[in-house]
Structure formats: structure tokens, C-alpha cells
Amino acid sequence: MRTDNFQAPDYYNIDELLTDEHKIVRDAAREWVKREVSPIIEDAAQKAEFPKSIISGLAEIGAFGPYIPEEYGGAGLDQISYGLIMQEIERGDSGVRSTASVQSSLVMFPIYKYGTEEQRKKYLPKLASGEFMGCFGLTEPDHGSNPGGMTTNFKDKGDHYLLNGAKMWISNAPFADIAVVWAKDENGRIHGLIVERGMEGFSTPETHNKWSLRASATGELIFDNVKVPKENLMPNKSGLGAPLGCLDSARYGIAWGAIGAAMDCYDTALRYAKERVQFDKPIAGTQLQQKKLAEMITEITKAQLMAWRLGVLKNERKATSAQISMAKRNNVEMAIKIAREARQILGGMGITGEYSIMRHMMNLESVITYEGTHDIHLLITGMDITGIPAFQ
Ligand code: TGC
Ligand code: FAD
């Protein structure tokens, strides 16, 4: 079992920008990750198993619905607390953060924002406690970056809807109790439907052979003439903007989460470089390794400030989708570059499961792809500053 000696870098005293509540929430998540995630995560990733034993702990630290009001079982926290929780969880593993992101921002958020009061009462408290786990079906085999082209559809059959189609690359799908599914009606308008495990014609085959996010379960959602009760349609928003609105919230969490992965890689590499002696001195005393470490802490500090400022804007309801895209893109790229450099600092040891770096590095290949690829976020920034979409 690996000892977790993590010490969080805070080069610009960003702690001084946080409230007492932020620090309490952050420290509780940090301690929980040290205690419950670090000891088991490498084994889970090696076995490609989602560690279901951590679900109740995630609920206890407020990771399921941090910003959902307490009356629905959420933690009622602000956006910076949400970000800090994601940072700490992803410090442990991006796959665990994925589970929390999906549950909070892609399942609880749409039910809270677009659902009926009955739907909120029925699902949100159980999702907040982890009694129910959820997944989010937007991506299809032929429609990834372009979800507006989706073909999954439903027809009005009087007393129910008949749902057909397939979703791919869905986090939590293999074990989820409910799925928030985006599908077109007979007029081609996109709506969100809540599909429950056990509905006839609904299956969730697992996706195997992943080299990334191995401790997170990924699968497909198959709908073969699934009869969905009419009360399972979320009525308060339709069109592509509805799922994209959920992505704003999840992408924001990833902008913080990626910092956690980067901090873990940096902290591990710094400690190793100070201990590892070659040519009769610690490799941390060489200019080449100092360049790597100095650039890492610089980039982490910039990313921390960006995430914090975005959190302030989110709290004030002023953050734009394009600002969120910029932070997701910047911080994930920052983290993946740091993971690659940190792995090299560890030499041969860097490729082993004795250290977390290679796992973070492989995980981040998914993080840079999902919730909008690196390219798509650049195009979103490009469109925002020029006013001209360049997607087609
Ligand atoms: P476009 O015409 O630009 O927009 C359609 C409508 O949507 C509105 N909109 C947004 N609304 C809220 N938030 C946003 N971020 C929004 N972006 C656009 C827009 O105003 C418009 O509204 P209206 O009222 O005029 O109809 O749409 P487009 O088809 O040109 O596509 C734009 C594009 C490429 C940016 C978008 O499709 C996109 O973001 N693609 C990337 C797809 C993506 O991110 N998929 C993620 C799937 S879920 C996932 O990966 C979960 S991983 C979970 C984990 O494990 O952590
Ligand atoms: P494509 O869209 O086919 O893109 C392939 C390449 O082409 C990319 O490099 C892309 O940047 C580039 N490209 C695409 N369009 C353009 C363009 N206009 N201009 C220039 N370049 C372009 N989805 C869900 O709905 N729910 C989930 O829970 C979920 N979880 C996931 C978990 C994992 C582990 C992974 C890997 C993915 C997950 N996804 C999920 C899907 C994810 O959102 C998609 O993989 C992502 O949006 C990209 O779609 P794609 O894989 O089809 O790639």
C-alpha cells in the first residue's frame, strides 16, 4: 500500500483568498482522499475496476451536488467550494472525480434546473446520498463533438414515449440506476429524459480495454423501444443549450480538478528529485530538473488563479460559457504537460504503479478529450473573440 505524503503547493498564498468555509470543505475532502482513495486507487486502476466502496464517502464530503440546495439533499455550497472538492478528488484520481462530476453536474444539475418539483423530490436526495447513481447520455457513436446531430429519438405514444437509439462513452453507465438521456422528439427538438435501470429494452454494456480512467466505469446506453413514462421528461428547458448548460457546470469542475492532478504530479516529482541521488548529488540540484520543477509550479499557480477568479465570476453568475471553456482547456493542458514532465523526473520509477504520475498522465488523456475536446474549446474561444464560428 502506497503512503500518501501529499503536500499541496500554494506558491501565491491563494489560501488567503479563501473563506473559512472553503478551507474546511477543502481540507475535509483532502483528508478523505488521503484516507480512503490513495490506499486503494492504484489497485482499482490496475484491475480496471470502479471502487464502489468510495460512493458513501463521496456523498459524505459533499461531492454529490455540492451546490444543490440542502432542501434537495445537496450541500448548499458555493462554486469555489465545489471547485475545491473537485480539485481534491482529482488529486486522488481523475476517474473518481469523473464519477462525482457526472453525478453532480450532469445528473443532479439538469434535474434541479430543468426538472419538475416531483422529479427533484424523487431523485435528488437519493443522488446526493449515493443511494442512486446517475449517468449522462449525450455522445453517440457518430456524434461526439457535434452532439446536435444526434439520432437518438423518442415518439409520443399517448400515455408514454418510445425511445430508440444509442449513446457511447458514458461514464458510470455500467452501474448507474438512472440515466439523463438527450434525445430528439418528432420535430427534431432535443429534450432530456430520465431513464431508469430495469426499463424494458434499456441496456448498459461496459466498455473494456481502456488505458485511461481505468478506475472509472464507462459504457454504452442502448435504447431498444424503451417505454419511458411521460412524467420522466424534464420540461423546463429543451434544445441543444439544455445539455450544453450542464456541460458548463461540469467543465468548470474539471478546470479545478485538473489542478489537483497537476499538484499531485508536481509534489511527487519535487520530493523524488530531492531524494534521488545521481552523480553524487540530488537530481533536484541540477539545472535541467529545476527548470522542469520551476515551470511546473509557475503553471500550477497561474491555473489556480484562473480557477479562483472563474469561481468568483460563477458565484456572481457572471461566468460565460467561453470563459469556462478557456479554463477547462488551459488547466487540463497544463496538467497533462506537468504529468509528462514529472514522469520523466522519476526516470524508470515513473512508469510504475508505485507512484501516481503515470496513472494521472493516462487519465488526463480522457480529460483532455471529454466535456469538449481541446480543439473544440479553442474553437469556442475563437468564436467568442471573432464572432465567427469555425466548427464547419
Ligand atoms: P450552437 O449553435 O453553437 O449552440 C446551440 C444552442 O446551445 C447554446 N449553447 C450553450 N448553452 C449553454 N451552455 C453552453 N456552453 C452553450 N454553447 C452553446 C447556443 O446559444 C444555442 O442556443 P439557441 O437557443 O440559439 O439554440 O451549437 P453547435 O451545434 O454549433 O455546437 C457548438 C459546440 C461545438 C460548441 C458544442 O456542440 C460543443 O460544445 N461540443 C462539444 C461536445 C461535448 O462537450 N460533449 C461532452 C459530452 S458529456 C461528457 O463528455 C461527459 S464526461 C464526464 C466525466 O466523466 O467527467
Ligand atoms: P470526435 O468528435 O470524432 O473528434 C475527433 C477529433 O476531431 C478530435 O481531435 C476533435 O477535436 C476533432 N474535431 C472534431 N470536430 C472538429 C472541428 N469542427 N474542427 C476541428 N477539429 C475537430 N460523453 C457523454 O455524453 N457522457 C459521458 O459521461 C462521457 N464520458 C466519457 C468518458 C470517457 C472516458 C471518454 C473518453 C469520453 C466520454 N464522453 C462522454 C464522450 C466525450 O465527450 C467525447 O469523446 C468527446 O466529446 C469527443 O467526441 P468523439 O470522441 O466522438 O471525437
Helical fraction equals: 40-55%
Strand order in the largest sheet? 1-4-5-8
What sequence of helices (H) and strands (E) makes up the elements?
Answer: HHHHHEEEEEEEEHEEHHHH
Unreliable runs, pLDDT <50, ≥5 residues?
none
- Please report the total strand number as a whole number: 10
Which class do the helix and strand fractions yield?
A: alpha+beta
SSE arrangement:
Blueprint: H1 20-47, H2 55-60, H3 79-92, H4 94-114, H5 117-129, E1 134-137, E2 153-156, E3 160-171, E4 178-184, E5 190-196, E6 202-203, E7 218-229, E8 233-234, H6 241-275, E9 277-278, E10 281-282, H7 287-315, H8 321-345, H9 357-367, H10 374-386
Parallel strand pairs: 1-4
Antiparallel strand pairs: 2-3, 3-7, 4-5, 5-8, 6-7, 9-10
Helix pairs in contact: 1-3, 3-4, 3-6, 4-5, 4-6, 6-7, 6-8, 6-9, 7-8, 8-9, 8-10
Description:
- The protein is of the alpha+beta class and 392 residues long.
- The protein contains ten helices and ten strands.
- It has helices spanning 20-47, 55-60, 79-92, 94-114, 117-129, 241-275, 287-315, 321-345, 357-367, 374-386; strands at residues 134-137, 153-156, 160-171, 178-184, 190-196, 202-203, 218-229, 233-234, 277-278, 281-282.
- Strands 1-4-5-8 form a four-stranded mixed β-sheet, with helices on one face.
- A hairpin with a 3-residue loop joins strand 2 (153-156) and strand 3 (160-171).
- Helix 3 runs antiparallel to helix 4 (94-114), helix 4 (94-114) runs antiparallel to helix 6 and helix 8 (321-345) packs antiparallel against helix 9.
- The longest helix is centred in the middle third of the chain and has 35 residues, at 241-275.
- The N and C termini lie far apart (50 Å).
- 3-thiaglutaryl-CoA binds at residues 98, 101-102, 136, 138-139, 145-148, 171, 239-241, 244-245, 247-248, 250, 321, 370-372, 376, 380, 391.
- Residues 102, 135-139, 144-145, 169-171, 213, 218, 366, 369-371, 373, 375-376, 391 line the site of flavin-adenine dinucleotide (FAD).
